[in-house]
């Protein structure tokens, strides 16, 4: 069933690359614009859609989660490597924009963490082993 998660990722990736190429052509650029990001959004939306319709077995969901978690760091690393050469040639503007992007991300994460509602408290830790010595000591 995990192979279906891989197939879903492949379909989303191909569709994202195609849509990124179309977006690049529409903007008058001869390159893919946001294809990988579009692919990740398609994967997220496809997973949510399939979950709500009970079309996603648990093992397939695990496959989608695995590839989604693996896909993002690999793509970010590839993009960072490609952009590093042009950033070094770009001068201080590229460096300032990178620092600004990191600062904005840090601020957004801080705001999200502060506005998040606390989760309900559990009744206690689950008992893994029935050990009479532990229950007597308490």
TrEMBL record:
The gene is madL. The keyword Kinase does not apply. InterPro entries: Maln_transptMadL. This is Malonate transporter subunit MadL. The keyword Membrane applies. Coiled coil: none annotated. Keywords: Membrane, Transmembrane, Transmembrane helix. The chain crosses the membrane at residues 34-50, 62-81, 93-112. It comes from Variovorax ginsengisoli.
